[in-house]
Design a protein that fits this description.
Blueprint (H helix, E strand, L loop, with lengths): L9 E4 L5 E4 L21 E4 H36 L6 H25 L1 H21 L3 H29 L5 H29 L4 H4 L1 H15 L23 H24 L5 H24 L12 H4 L2 H32 L3 H12 L1 H15 L4 H19 L11 H23 L9 H47 L11 H34 L11
Antiparallel strand pairs: 1-2, 2-3
Helix pairs in contact: 1-2, 1-4, 1-5, 1-7, 1-11, 1-12, 2-3, 2-4, 2-8, 2-16, 3-4, 3-7, 4-16, 5-12, 5-13, 5-15, 8-9, 8-16, 11-12, 11-15, 11-16, 11-17, 12-15, 13-14, 13-15, 14-15, 14-17, 16-17
């Protein structure tokens, strides 16, 4: 966040339809958190109807794309049962997360070149078009392909709107403003599974995707009419130079996308085939490793002084212990929070036999606690000026406690009531950790890197969820396959991995055995997630410094 001048506050007309505010509040960051090279300058902020309408557009856009991540969690079983391919079920989520994750930094950098408004509107058009495509899909392959393109649009909406959040208000108002916007994000995560269950049970799962079309069109209209074309430089006599398209690091972007796509494809193949020695698993993982090395080498090369190409991942990030710790922390936060959001409804439907709606209701204990954690963190760091890193450590301890109990759920009690209470601890911790990462990001990087840094945090968060989800899916499916192969036989086992509706048709004693094995599988998966949560504590400690960052 740019530092603000200390002159008088004044209101000047932007045009006949709106106004801009020139903020005069001095930035209150600790000296240690001010990046070198930043200078004080007047920053013009939107006020009045432009501010409120653009905020509504940003909030609605963020709501829809994050709503899309979790709404599928309770509808996944009905979708794959209708399209007859349960074994490939996780691709419906992973395809979206793959392109969503891969596009974040690229969209952030592109918005620096073509402008925030144009980048935001372009991504909304892509998201809307392929949401309609998902709703019309007739095969699982068609759905997966449309989900991948839908993720491209979603990544653009997130990357650009988050950058706009940091540019909408002065630094001293950021905790309150970001809390409002991020609460919408967490509400979307909370409501997604519930509404997914309602839609799947009362109508068709296709409306899970089609519902995005009218609402995203409304969000695009809000941005179109309220955000100035030259945002965030509206009202300035002299605009800072905007980089040209030629300065975009196309090689770096290509290598990063290839590395991410191959990594996630290899992990996903491993979880689907239940084998990590197959060539279709090893080949993409090996090539992904080579691509990552090539990507890092390219970023080092283009980050050299005097180079006109702007790297998609500045090498100065790699040289900063704080920034790298922040990104690793985001990886582990996503590996815990989003994975639980997907797996808890899955457990309810396979191990307990609940309907999609019932599983969505059960998830509320977890997902409703996340906004509370975010709000509690924001209030504490703003009103009490407690360093976010202290509270982040407390939140991670809560996650660990919750996961210890979740990984030890009794097999003879499928609908274990205690599970919903301990899952709320994990949800609260997830919200608080997300709040800490969001609030600290602009205070750890230079002003020119805010868009890329905020996108990178989200990218690592979703990359963490994709990697952990693929690993635990493989482990869980392998566990179920090995424990049920003798009892079910190869034919019924194949039918089970095609559609879980088979469980309801089994004899009572065999049905109980299958559901118990799914509970054991879930417990094993949560032990892996618990390990990720423990690692998260160490990544937070890597951000330790003196004095600590305090939010003004």
């Amino acid at each position: 966040m740019a530092l603000l001048s200390q002159g008088e506050k004044r209101i000047e007309p932007l045009d006949s339809d709106g106004k801009i505010e020139i903020s005069s509040t001095p930035d209150e960051r600790d000296i240690s958190s001010i990046s070198s090279g930043e200078q004080n300058e007047d920053i013009h902020y939107l006020v009045g109807w432009r501010f409120y309408l653009s905020t509504a557009g940003i909030g609605l856009g963020l709501f829809l794309i994050n709503f899309e991540v979790t709404i599928v969690s309770t509808a996944l079983v009905p979708i794959t049962n209708e399209l007859h391919d349960f074994q490939q079920a996780s691709w419906v989520i992973t395809a979206y997360l793959l392109t969503y994750t891969g596009g974040l930094v690229i969209w952030a950098k592109l918005s620096d070149i073509i402008g925030r408004k144009l980048a935001c509107l372009s991504s909304m058009i892509i998201f809307t078009a392929f949401s309609a495509g998902c709703g019309a899909a007739q095969t699982l392959l068609q759905l997966i392909v449309c989900r991948a393109f839908q993720g491209i649009g979603g990544s653009g909406i997130y990357a650009v709107t988050i950058a706009m959040v940091y540019e909408m208000v002065p630094a001293h108002k950021l905790p309150i403003y970001s809390s409002f916007v991020m609460i919408l994000f967490l509400i979307a995560v909370a409501l997604g599974p519930l509404l997914g269950g309602i839609i799947s049970q009362q109508a068709s799962w296709r409306w899970i995707f089609l519902i995005n079309v009218p609402f995203c069109a409304v969000a695009a209209a809000m941005i179109l009419f309220s955000v100035p074309n030259n945002f965030p430089n509206q009202g300035r006599v002299r605009h800072p130079p905007r980089p040209s398209l030629k300065s975009l690091d196309f090689l770096g972007a290509t290598l990063m996308l290839a590395a991410l796509a191959l990594l996630i494809t290899g992990l996903q193949q491993g979880s689907s085939l239940l084998s990590w020695s197959d060539s279709s698993v090893l080949a993409p993982l090996i090539v992904s490793g080579v691509s990552w090395v090539a990507f890092l080498a390219s970023q080092w090369y283009v980050s050299r002084e005097g180079n006109t190409i702007q790297p998609v991942f500045p090498w100065r990030f790699c040289r900063s212990r704080l920034v790298m710790a922040l990104l690793l922390n985001a990886f582990t936060i996503g590996g815990v929070g989003i994975t639980c959001t997907i797996q808890l409804p899955f457990r309810s439907q396979t191990a307990v036999g609940m309907t999609p709606l019932e599983s969505g209701v059960r998830l509320l204990a977890f997902s409703a606690a996340a906004p509370l954690g975010f709000v509690a963190m924001s209030i504490a760091v703003k009103k009490r000026r407690v360093p976010p890193i202290y509270l982040s450590l407390v939140a991670q301890v809560l996650q660990i406690i919750g996961l210890v109990f979740m990984s030890r759920a009794p097999v003879d009690k499928p609908d274990w009531a205690t599970l919903y209470g301990v899952s709320s601890l994990v949800g609260f911790g997830m919200g608080a950790c997300n709040s800490a990462a969001t609030l600290m990001t602009p205070f750890m990087v230079e002003k020119r890197d805010i868009a890329v840094a905020s996108a990178s945090v989200v990218q690592f968060r979703f990359l963490g969820s994709t990697v952990v989800l693929s690993v635990i899916t493989s482990v869980g499916n392998t566990w179920v396959k090995n424990r049920l192969s003798e009892a079910l036989g190869s034919e019924n086992l194949g039918l089970l991995f095609e559609s879980t509706e088979l469980i309801d048709s089994l004899p009572s004693d065999l049905e109980t055995l299958v559901r118990n094995r799914f509970i054991e599988s879930f417990n094993l998966q949560m032990e892996i997630v618990l390990g990720v949560a423990v690692v998260s504590v160490f990544t937070t400690l890597l951000m330790w410094q003196r004095p600590q960052i305090r939010i003004p």
